[in-house]
Write a structure and sequence with these properties.
Blueprint lengths: L1 H9 L1 H30 L6 H10 L4 H29 L3 H21 L5 H18 L6 H26 L4 H24 L22 H24 L4 H4 L2 H16 L12 H21 L4 H25 L3 H25 L16 H25 L4 H15 L5 H26 L6 H18 L6 H10 L15 H25 L4 H21 L8 H19 L5 H28 L6 H12 L8 H15 L10 H19 L1 H4 L28
Helix pairs in contact: 1-2, 2-3, 2-7, 2-18, 3-7, 3-19, 4-5, 4-6, 4-7, 4-9, 5-6, 5-15, 5-16, 6-7, 6-16, 8-9, 8-11, 8-12, 9-11, 11-14, 11-22, 12-13, 13-14, 14-26, 15-16, 15-20, 16-20, 17-18, 17-19, 17-20, 18-19, 21-22, 21-23, 22-23, 23-24, 23-26, 24-25, 25-26
Length: 718
């Protein structure tokens, strides 16, 4: 134990993490002290509601805290309004009231699933506020308005106090975030550089792939580093959105920065086993050396300099290398080398645009509005869970006339709404329930040994600090964060600290604790037993959605243009969710294959967009244009017979530019041929992923579910 403590002080990273956790805990407990003191001073009916608000709103990032606070107030106002309306309409009919309440909570859980980041708290607080306002008013419906005002007052006190404390005590510096963006860009370039420096070891073909396939096996550490980079980019994008709330320097460049980060995600995602590799010729080795030299130039120029100071030199060097690639493409006689050069040209364009978006204001990224992916099956399931658990709690209250049932209702509605904001609600339900259940013995110790000893407000606050500190501290632990949040938020409900404080009633306390434990059981049953997730089905739906988006892109009849990044970012969100779903039931090797195939669909979409752009080139003849559009029309069969689509693309490539006539055709025809050929190869590599009868689309107990993940379901029929 002593060695563990000394390691925390000797290791810089662990010491920094320890200081961050301690600073956040101190700010949160100071906010609790001020909020509770003000609630007592204002003679609010339920002062502990302000403490609960502090525990929910507190966030290490000030921008996140401010945003969460604003949306929490909005949700509280909406919930208070709906609560008064429901009580007014159904005051004479408890059954109809319960149905209306359950439907409202279900809709709130659906909205919490759809909304991103701090906006989800508006939906969370809508359902939560309805219950906490309505429960005390059942005995006296005429007091519903006063109950709503009291609840709103306690929430506002907690929000304003927390925001003030964190804004005063937390340093807000935009340069820190810009440094993170700078480091991320350099790490992305380094990631690409490492891939190219090891190019001679990459082209090993997967022995299980189809004959003629370009699918290759890559080491496990490559997959791990790629996943880590994508997760890091996602976290930084969220941090930028948070910081834009209260930082002017970030707010004026938010869209450009987020667009640049999305482009970095696309660059990282472009490296998968289907990426075309150079053959081992003298010409290709020269090209490869130039790529490595260009990437090293970017690393050298951005070392110790901001992106703003180095972007012009960097973009000029990228364009120089791109011109060399175009020249090499015109002189090459090898179809394999042509595909490699075409890949590199596209990559260079992505790097240049990302550097422009991240380094200066007013770039093309400002006009882009990235969209979140709305996963309807998950939202509907969370909505059904919210309705079910609310109706069950209402019926228990109504049938048993249990005096502590409102406490149970308060917990299950709040916990169900909070869980709906998480990527995997069922997985977090057990942690949330366990954290809440641990609050019962903690509350018993607090009522037995701490609260009887207090004789003033300072000791009361100190007692609350002792009780809340474990939950606040554990929120920073990745494994126990959800449980720590559940403990910190709901342990405040277990204390009978009212205004004024009366003698503690052991029977009343035990009654409330039993209600919370019953709520924990109901939460786990609802999310993991009665309506459990089907991760395989969810993964299959995501795969189907990726295929459908590709089909729609190819058949849309119009180019995405500057909105292309929006499409790519939307598909990447699906890929990240697919990786999470697969992690629940698939082997690591299978996960890698499916994620590689999913990322290949993003490359396929980019190729489709480029093909559509090249079809409008004046160098493309009328017959060639017809062949291109006929090839794109074969995407209508992508989900039924992917190999038929691949054959159509390859026929169009032969019409545009036969392999023996590469040097005789105009550049646009050669580039279009390369795009068509690459698209055909990708589809030929992953037919089982794209086919609607692929192995992932079958239940686990079907024999078809155990076929090789990416193998063709059936051969081309002619």
């Amino acid at each position: 134990m002593f060695s563990s403590l000394t390691r925390h002080f000797s290791d810089d990273a662990q010491w920094a993490a320890l200081r961050t956790t301690a600073a956040f805990s101190g700010r949160a407990l100071l906010s609790v002290a001020i909020a509770l003191f003000l609630a007592f001073s204002f003679q609010l009916q339920s002062p502990m509601s302000s403490v609960t608000t502090v525990m929910i709103v507190a966030n290490p990032t000030v921008g996140a805290l401010v945003s969460k606070s604003v949306w929490r107030v909005i949700g509280t106002i909406i919930g208070a309004s709906i609560s008064v309306g429901l009580m007014a309409v159904f005051v004479q009919s408890p059954a109809l009231y319960f149905m209306g309440l359950s439907a409202t909570v279900g809709l709130a859980c659906m909205a919490a699933t759809f909304l991103r980041l701090f906006r989800a708290y508006a939906a969370v607080l809508t359902g939560y506020t309805i219950v906490i306002i309505s429960a005390p008013a059942f005995d006296d419906p005429d007091g519903i308005f006063l109950s709503a005002m009291s609840r709103l007052s306690a929430v506002v006190v907690g929000i304003v106090t927390t925001a003030a404390v964190f804004m005063v005590t937390s340093p807000r510096r935009s340069d820190t975030l810009f440094v993170q963006i700078h480091d991320l860009f350099r790490d992305t370039v380094s990631y690409i550089l490492a891939f190219h420096q090891g190019y001679t070891n990459v082209p090993a073909r997967n022995p299980d792939a189809l004959p003629g396939s370009t699918f290759r096996t890559l080491p496990t550490n490559f997959h791990d580093s790629r996943a880590a980079m994508l997760a890091r980019i996602g976290r930084l994008s969220d941090a930028v959105e948070y910081a834009a709330t209260d930082n002017y320097d970030i707010s004026v460049r938010e869209r450009e920065i987020r667009a640049g980060l999305a482009r970095l995600s696309g660059i990282v995602a472009s490296y998968h086993p289907h990426t075309i590799t150079a053959s081992d010729t003298e010409q290709d080795r020269v090209v490869h050396t130039e790529i490595v030299s260009m990437l090293q130039f970017l690393m050298d120029r951005t070392a110790g300099r901001t992106l703003e100071a180095s972007w012009m030199e960097g973009c000029a060097r990228i364009r120089h290398t791109r011109d060399l690639m175009i020249t090499q493409a015109r002189e090459t006689h090898s179809p394999q080398s042509l595909l490699f050069l075409d890949d590199i040209q596209d990559l260079l364009g992505q790097i240049e645009t990302a550097l422009q978006d991240l380094s200066r204001r007013g770039s093309a990224g400002r006009r882009l509005r990235l969209q979140p992916y709305l996963e309807w099956p998950t939202a509907l399931r969370n909505g059904a869970r919210g309705m079910l658990i609310t109706m069950s709690a209402c019926l228990i209250w109504y049938v048993l006339h249990w005096t502590a049932a409102p406490t149970m209702m308060l917990y299950v509605v709040a916990a169900a709404s909070l869980l709906s904001t998480l990527p995997s609600a069922s997985r977090a339900a057990g942690l949330m329930a366990a954290g809440t259940a641990l609050g019962v013995p903690a509350g018993l110790l607090c009522h037995t040994y701490l609260l009887p000893q207090i004789d003033g407000y300072p000791l009361l606050w100190l007692s609350l600090c002792i009780m809340l500190l474990p939950g606040i501290w554990l929120q920073f632990h990745p494994k126990f964060g959800v449980g720590g949040f559940g403990y910190g938020v709901f342990s405040t409900v277990m204390l009978q600290v009212n205004n004024p404080i009366h003698y503690y009633n052991d029977v009343s306390l035990l009654n409330g604790w039993m209600a919370l434990l019953m709520g924990c059981i109901m939460l786990v049953l609802s999310f993991r037993v009665i309506l459990p997730p089907n991760h395989r089905l969810d993964a299959a739906r995501l795969v189907t959605s990726l295929t459908r988006s590709l089909r729609r892109l190819a058949l849309s009849g119009r180019r995405q243009g500057k909105e292309w990044l929006v499409w790519e970012n939307l598909q990447l969100q699906k890929v990240l969710r697919l990786a999470m779903r697969l992690s629940f039931f698939a082997r690591p090797a299978m996960i890698h294959e499916y994620i590689d195939a999913a990322l290949a669909t993003l490359s396929l979409g980019r190729l489709v967009e480029r093909i559509r752009m090249l079809a409008a080139s004046p160098d493309i003849t009328g017959a060639q244009q017809v062949a291109i559009y006929d090839a794109l029309d074969t995407f209508s069969e992508l989900a039924h017979n992917p190999l038929l689509t691949a054959a159509g693309l390859r026929r169009a490539a032969d019409v545009l530019c036969p392999p023996d006539a590469i040097t005789l055709r105009p550049p646009a025809q050669v580039e279009a041929m390369a795009c068509l050929e690459q698209a055909a190869r990708i589809i030929q590599d992953i037919p089982g992923f794209l086919d609607q009868r692929g192995p992932l689309q079958w239940a686990e107990d079907y024999p078809a579910a155990h076929r090789p993940p990416l193998a063709a379901v059936r051969t081309e029929s002619g």
